[in-house]
Structure formats: C-alpha cells, structure tokens
Amino acid sequence: MSQFRAHSVLPGFNLALGFTLLYLSLIVLIPLSALFVKTAALGWGGFWEVATGDRVLASLRVTFLTSFVAAVLNAFFGLVVAWVLVRYSFPGKRIVDALVDLPFALPTAVAGIVLATLYAPNGWIGHHFAAHDIKVAYTPLGIVVALTFIGLPFVVRTVQPVLADVEAEVEEAAASLGAGRWDVFRRVIFPAIYPALLTGFALAFARAIGEYGSVIFIAGNMPYISEIAPLLIVAKLEQYDYAGATAIAVLMLLISFALLLAINGLQWWSGRRRAR
Amino acid sequence: MSITIENLSKQFGDHKALDDINLEVNSGELLALLGPSGCGKTTLLRIIGGMEVANSGRLLFHGEDVEQRDARERNVGFVFQHYALFRHMTVFENVAFGIRVKPRKQRPSEAEIKRRVHELLNLVQLDWLHDRYPAQLSGGQRQRIALARALAVEPKILLLDEPFGALDARVRKELRRWLRRLHDELHITSVFVTHDQEEALEVADRVVVMNKGRIEQAGTPDEVYAAPSTPFVYQFIGNVNLFHSRDHAPWSEQHGDAVAYVRPHDIDIGATPQDGNALPVEVKLVRAIGSVVRVEVAVDASSEFIEIELSRERFDAAPLASGDKVFIRPRQFRVFESGEQHELSAA
C-alpha cells in the first residue's frame, strides 16, 4: 500500500481510505448489489425476456431520448444563463442568481403539477401551443420540458465559476490580435469552459434519467409513447413483480453507467490533450 | 508609426483618471509611461490599444484618427502584466493565433504560418519550447512568448503594460536589457507602462512622468533625472532631500516659505564653513554600500535626517564617523514655492 502514499497534510491514509470504502459500500455498493442479487432470481432467460419486452424497450427509449434532448437544451441555455450572470451586471442580478437554484429545492412533484397545468392545452402557456396544434403536456415534449426544468442548475452551477475564471485580459489579448467575437468565443473561451460544460451536461443528463416525480404528472404516461422507465419500475412493484422491477433497474443502471463512463472518458481525453 | 494624443480625458464615475493629456510618441521610439499606481498610465495605454474609450480628446496614429476603430482593427500589439496567454494552447499555437484568425484571404498557408511562428520563437530565443503549454513555462519565458504572440501580427505599435511587473528582480533586469536590444532591432513604436523608475530610465528613449491623471514631465531619461520640472518628479525619480526655509534658514531665507530639493550626491561635506550657505550638522550614521558611502546627518536632535551620498574615493580622503560636527553645502539645488520655481546653482 505504501507506494500509493503521497505526502499529504491530511493524516491517516489507511484510515481515510478505509472510511471511503466503507462509506461507499454502505451508501452505494450494497444497495446496488442487492439490485443485482434480486435480479439474479430471474435467471438469464427471465432477465432477457423482461429486458427485451416491447414496453420496456419503448420506455427506455423515451427515458434516454428525452433526457438527452433536455440535457442538450440545458447545456446550451445553461451556458447562456451562466454567461449573463458572470459577464453582465444588472439590477436584480442576485435574485436571478438565486432563482437558478430553485429547481434543486422545489419538490419535483410540485414542479410536475405546475408545469402540467401551465402546458396543458388550456393552460397559460399550453393554449398558445394548442393554437398551432402542438401538444406539450401529456406527450414526450412535456417530459422534455420537465427534465429541462430539473436539470438547468447543474449546467449553470458548473460553468459559472469556470467562466468567471476566464480573465478578461485573455479576451482583450485575442481581440488585439485581430480576432472577431466569434473567434474569441470559439478559440479562446469555449476551450476553457468545455470540460465544465461537459460535466454540467453529464450531471443534468444523469439527473434526468433518474427523474420520476415531475415527469409522471406531465407525461400522460401512455405506454409505448410517453411512459418512462422509472414509472414502469413502480408499476411492476405495484404488481409485486419485484424481480421484473429490479431487472429494468439493472438495465437502466448499466446503460447510465456506460454513458457516464463515455462522458468521463471524453473529459479525460480532452484534459490530457490540454495538459500534455 | 507615430501616435498623437490631444486633450484626452477619461472619467471613471467621479474619478478623473486622465485629465487633458497631450502627448506625441515619435515613430520608432521606445517611450515609458512612469508613475505611481493609480496615476492613469495604464488607462492611457489601454485607450491607445482600444480596450478603453476616452470621454473626450483625440487619438491619432500617423495623423489618422483611430477613435472609431476597434482594438482588433488598430494593428496594435499588446503585452499584459500577467501574460494573458491562452492556457489550452501550446506555445506554438499561442504565437500562431493572430495569424490563424486573419480573414481567409489574408491567411497564409500552413507552411508559411509554421515558418513565421518558428522565426518569432527564434527571435525570443524560445523555439525549443514550441510544444509546451504556458503552465509549464517560467514567468520570464511566458512574457517572452506573449511578446512573440503580439509581434506575430506585425503590429505598427507595441504596447506593454508593466511587462516585467510580475517577475523577480534578476529576471526583470535581464528581460529589460533584452527588450531594449529587441527594440533596437525591430524599431517598432513602443509604449510601456511601469512604476519602476530604474526600469524607465534604463530602457526608454523618452520618459513621461505621470501623476494623478496628468503629465508632470516628458523628456529623455537624463532630463527627467537631472532637471525635474516639478517637485513630484524630483521626489518620484531618484532620492532627494527636502530643506524647508523655516528649518534651514541660512540657505534660502531670501525665498520666504519655500522648499529646496537637493539630490544626496549633490552635497559637499566640509570641516569648516566655506561660505554663508553652509549648514552646521552632526553626523548620525555612516554606511558603506558597495561603491558609495551613505552618510546621514541632522541639524539638531529634532530635525529630519539628511541623506548624503559620497563616492568611496571622496570618503576615504576625509573619513567621517558618527558624532562628528561638520558643515554641509549643496552643489546644486532647486527651490519650489507656491507654483513658482527658482533654479539656483551654488557652484
């Protein structure tokens, strides 16, 4: 073990590592392995049957697709919000800054109900869409709206400090070298904030995949169309099909893990390019 | 390219950063803006560079009005105190930046970019670092890269904002000699800002001393040191002793309430009073510092110390020890009183 021990101001490498492992085991690893143990009761055949069921596949597609779209939207608009909060000063800026965190604090069910009411065909916002024959609430579009709401703070809060760290001087240097606004953003600012933006995107994405409370109120939950995988898990639980529920959970877990691993890999790769 | 500044003023809220500045920077000259922090020198530099806009006045490059031109259109190279290098780019890419962002039609081929960047890196003697990242370089190296980057766009004017301010004393000294040599090679009209008088006097062709948003004096390093035109310049450049007519009556009783400014090396020490201008003092402290000997004397116990610098030769000819009673006499001094100035030479 001693070859891992670097000099550090914090004492007790052994103790700290032991604590880390114990804590992770209690909080993350044991519950997750219980999931696998429960699923194992189905056997490969049973698992495969659940995993390839039409309704399950449809719900997974809805979950990951809407989560991805919402995370992309958040990455873009979250960047804009972070930009405005960092670069400009205007009256009420602190209030706007505080508002960003609201989706963290609001019970997700409340958010779901409010959004569903607003975006329903007769709601304040929904009737404008309805006039153009676009239905938002009770469709996958509604799910995207809810997930965008949930995920916004992740992008803003990860990008904001990094953006604030980009010195104005660097931009001035680029401008004095003849770079236009777009060049300054593309070549100077974006590469600096890109890792943080990717982190924010991954967090918003991961959060959206697991989201349940807000979505079920606005989604309409029609099987094959707007039914998300977490809802299917709950449905199975209500039918006392515990193994089936955990099978879907394991499936989601594996896909999420693969995606997050890929995003981390992308980040590691870009980080390596920078600090070679 | 020459720079002409006419009646330029800049206001930040209630604070007058620049107050009616008039200045001519000759083509090919290396000019230093010297002053204490907050005197407006950096603001002036940033206005020339197009990063700040003046409230009133005119700014001309080679007789052409450039106020309406953006920083990117002024063809000015800017070097920042804290380098402002692009952290995610290699040294090579940093230097190539200005060439790569040119409009497609003016952009040279990749081979030409490569040739030019390596030429610039050779000029700053750092070609061997071309594939490193800024974080891997020392401060002095970073600043040289920043200079190479600024030169890549072939600017007609080079502006440097406290370029050596963040470096340690030895690197500073080395780098400013190097900058002087580089300027002699390239002859780009250059303006650099500094609060270090030694740096300004050593490097610049001409020094502009600023204080509180105004120009106090503009002249060659020799002029501003030997013939300061205001009390501020006297005090800011080099050491100076102040003689108040009330306290040191024998020297300037004919001038009423006035202050005489005397450089430490412009004072003679003698065992006897040679004329009426001599002042009886007591030696308080003698310190030999390299080639000079610093002697501190006082008129009486309550008065401020007067600092005198003697060459070692002079000191050895007539050694002093603390407690000696001697007479001092200025070879050269200058009296300033309420707005009026008298230059007196007691030769």
Give an account of the 3D structure:
The complex is a heterodimer of chains A (276) and B (347). Chain A has 276 residues and is mostly helical. Chain A has one domain: MetI-like fold (Orthogonal Bundle), CATH 1.10.3720.10. Helix content of chain A is 78%, strand content 0%. Chain A is built from 13 helices and no strands. Chain A is globular, with a radius of gyration of 22 Å. The mean pLDDT of chain A is 88. Chain B is an alpha+beta fold. Chain B is built from ten helices and 19 strands. In chain B, the strands form four sheets. Chain B has a six-stranded mixed beta sheet, with helices on both faces. Chain B has a five-stranded antiparallel beta sheet with strand order 13-17-14-15-16. In chain B, helix 2 packs across helix 3, helix 2 (91-100) packs parallel to helix 4 (139-151) and helix 3 crosses helix 4 (139-151). Residues 338-347 of chain B have low confidence and may be disordered. The A-B interface holds A 167, 169-170, 172-180, 183, 187-188, 191-192, 274-276 and B 49-51, 70-78, 80, 82, 84-89, 97-98, 100-102, 133, 135, 146, 149-150, 152-153.
List keywords for this structure.
heterodimer; A: mainly alpha; MetI-like fold; 13 helices; B: alpha+beta; 6-stranded mixed beta sheet; 19 strands; 27% helix; disordered C terminus
